[in-house]
Amino acid sequence: MKINVFCGVALLAMMMALQGEVPVVEAATCNPMELSPCLAAITTGAPPSQTCCNKLKEQKPCLCEYIKDPNLGRFVNSPNAIKVQKSCGIPAPKC
């Protein structure tokens, strides 16, 4: 009996997801190259583009990983990078 109920619930959830009624969240693929639209804003202090902000929001779950990387951490923690995060409405990550 329990198996049938579980299967029914799983089937219902799958059908709802296929119909678009349940939001499906994809995990972020951590790729620092995805942040290339932010390069000018981070290196020059220019205002970030909407593309930059969108990419930064997509990569938000990866920021701690980038901070811990010795090659990337200095860019993610730079004053301009913090300014870009604030401009895009992204709080500083708590790592």
Descriptive tags:
0% strand, globular, 95 residues, mainly alpha
Task: Give a summary of the structure in a few sentences.
By secondary structure, the chain is mainly alpha-helical.
Describe this structure in words.
- The model is unreliable at 1-25 (pLDDT under 50).
- The radius of gyration is 19 Å and the shape is globular.
- The protein has six helices and no strands.
- With 95 residues, it is an all-alpha fold.
Q: What is the radius of gyration computed over CA atoms, rounded to a whole number of angstroms?
A: 19 Å
Choose one word for the global shape. Answer: globular
Q: Count the helices. How many?
A: 6
| Fraction of helical residues | 40-55%
How many strand segments? 0
Order of helical and strand elements: HHHHHH
Structural class comes to mainly alpha
Beta strand %: under 5%
Distance, first to last CA:
45 Å
Tell me about the biggest sheet?
none
